[in-house]
């Protein structure tokens, strides 16, 4: 813990200390990703994850059929949908990254707000 973090924690009350410890800890990737499934917009992210998973499974199935194809036309028949489905799944997954970054930014803003509160108390 840095010196500024220690000084802030010492200046805070009990409830504020718990909040500071919560905001000072940077959660791991999976904790952040599963955090997207809660809150007021969590249901939208759940639907997006289900659709993304279905597209990816469909893409894998079409990919398997692509490699089993015996004629070039049959390979084309399965290869293009496989590529499109996997790319659509990737686009949906990447569409959730801005919200993940917004959550990280909100945590840092809360931390800065606590620093400002401590600055006024001190």
Give an overview in words:
It is a single chain. The chain folds into 2 domains: 1-34 and 107-122, no CATH class; 37-95. The relative contact order is 0.14. It is rod-shaped, with a radius of gyration of 23 Å. The chain is 84% helix and 0% strand. It has 122 residues and is mainly α. The model has no long low-confidence stretch (mean pLDDT 84). The longest helix is centred in the middle third of the chain and has 27 residues, at 42-68. It has helices at residues 3-11, 14-24, 29-35, 42-68, 72-95, 97-121. The two termini are 20 Å apart. The chain crosses the membrane at residues 43-64, 76-96. It comes from Brevundimonas denitrificans. InterPro entries: DUF6768. This is Holin-X, holin superfamily III. Keywords: Membrane, Transmembrane, Transmembrane helix.
